[in-house]
Amino acid sequence: MTQTHIASLARIADFDKNPYDVRALRHGVWANGEYVLAEVTGIPSELYVIETCSGEMIPVQPGDQIIGALGSRAATLEGVGSYTDVRGGKMHALTGAGLFGHFTSFAAMLPPPLSLHYRGHIVRNGEKITMRQFAIRAQDTGFSVPTILLFGTSMSAGKTVTGRRICALLSSAGYRVIGAKLTGAGRLRDIASFKRAGAVAIFDFVDVGLPSTIVPQDVFRTAIRPLLSHIDKLKPDFLVAEAGASPLEPYNGEAAIDELGNNICCSILCASDPYAVVGVQQAFGHKPDLVAGPAANTTAAVDLVMKLTGVPAINVIDHGTMPALRTFLEHQLGLNLANQCSA
What we know:
By secondary structure, the chain is of the alpha/beta class. It folds into two domains: 4-134, no CATH class; 147-342, P-loop containing nucleotide triphosphate hydrolases (Rossmann fold). Helices cover 26% and strands 27% of the residues. The chain contains eight helices and 18 strands. The protein has helices at residues 159-172, 188-196, 217-233, 253-260, 274-284, 299-309, 322-333, 337-342; strands at 4-6, 21-23, 35-41, 49-51, 57-59, 65-70, 72-74, 79-82, 90-95, 99-106, 115-124, 127-128, 147-152, 177-183, 201-204, 238-243, 264-270, 290-292. The strands form three sheets. Strands 15-14-16-13-17-18 form a six-stranded parallel sheet, sandwiched between helices. It has a five-stranded mixed barrel with strand order 3-6-10-9-11. A two-stranded antiparallel sheet has the order 4-5. Helix 2 (188-196) links the parallel strand 14 and strand 15 (201-204). The longest helix has 17 residues, at 217-233. The mean pLDDT is 92.
């Protein structure tokens, strides 16, 4: 039985409550962040799953329809593509969140991506429905929240796991923490894990109308400033902010870090290996306060990070290192988490 699924990039929209129409439009008028309907095609693989607005991953079959958003992705470990590369209506799900485009480069080690065929744009009264129409609106009044920045050498470098551990430590000590993912390709699961770890609220660039942050820098800054102002108005004690991918990839990571400015009170680099720490540190010109991720998987790796960079490293995946992470945060942030927690 054919089903229509609303992917998580549409979680800010109202498609589950209000009617809409579908109209096929020529490719020349397509634009980033527009909602479209696509039909699942091809032979199902492990990647034939979609992330719903609740964050649940559900399987899809040929003939099913999905509401997603046009956008772009440039993942170093998985695939590269954009809605601008679509030809003849043949598309892919660039992420399970319903980021739609066409892969022009795809990792051979992965199973075939979810294939789609464009059926039309989501419209009301003949007008295209876009993510920006549902974006958070907030006056740009500035941002002054102490921020713990997580950035990486690539995707899948341990940023989300590290952020989750930090949210848990700070929130259990009584601090109001907000978790945010400021750059990357939209997925709900990352920031949802911050909420489960104790963050009082979670946000990402989807909340301000971006399917991914592969957009011109001025577009990104214009979108992200209202989000930061909105977070500022909520008056958290700390923001745990993840910059997806690495600052040197085309996701506007460097611009996001610049927007956070002097509010960054702690920066943690999540790296794939010790030599990657050196590469990002030299290329980006920023020395982190701590290294985490696979670059800290063993004592040999931790020792090599210190030898190469002079930066301490903690294997945060190991729950046994939570006391070390707590001690690091206490020193870096000037807190006494143990006393606060027992109060």
